[in-house]
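--- STAGE predict ---
source: upstream dedup step, 1 unique chain passed
mode: sequence only
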Amino acid sequence: MAYRTIVVSLNDVARVEAMVGSAALIAETCNAHLIGCYVIPAVKIYPEVGFAAASAIDDSWQQYFKENAPSVRVRFEEKLRQSGVSGEFRVVNSRYTEWAPSLVEQGRLADLIIVSQTARNLATHVEPGFVESVVMDSGRPVLIIPDKAVFAGVKSAVIGFNATREAARTLFDAMPLLQNATDVRIIWVDPYRDRDAAGEVPGAEAAVSLARHGVKATAEGLTAGGGNAGEALLQRANDLGSELLVMGAFAHSRMREYIFGGATQHVLAHAHIPVLMSH
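--- STAGE serialize ---
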């Protein structure tokens, strides 16, 4: 198993080098084609209230991304030359005022989408809820790079697993990132909640499945201790010095405004290492 097409989002302008460097390393390992996706959003139009009032137009974000497009292209292509990876830069003139939908459209035929963790500082021009939208809508595995980290390979990884659909899918979506790892832990948080599914050794069957793909993994149960599963997984990854967390993305609603489960939301907000999520 390998990723053959990778799409990396470049709309976090300040992090282009970090994002392309992370994506290029994976592309080189997998002999993949790397697509740098840069979305120019549509103009925002706000209808005014009142008789014959003119609509308000906000083109500030559109102008920001238009102005930065040449610089982002140069930085992307320079990183590609340095790495020797096959790739292309795509500017997408979106029909949407947000750029997540256009990235989703570009990424649906990719093996992997790579995005930057949403910064809490709106000055970055990264739309709130961007990562959540890509994870929920794309149908593809999404690698989230924290705002103060890069992907530099995986020797140690933590996999959150509980036999759900999301967890099972993410386990196999992560396979290309795990095949060179030397310490992979499959961790079932609070297995006492579903003893029948967890079995005597929680996650043991998942470890056997990984072994058939050449990934050596150990399985263990972990008690959250009153916190949520995301907090427990991040703490375990920190204790082990892991470079990757793998977990399914869970949501409580199919509405457009997604209501993420506590574990997923905690990880999206507080991850300090790259996280692979699938839904």
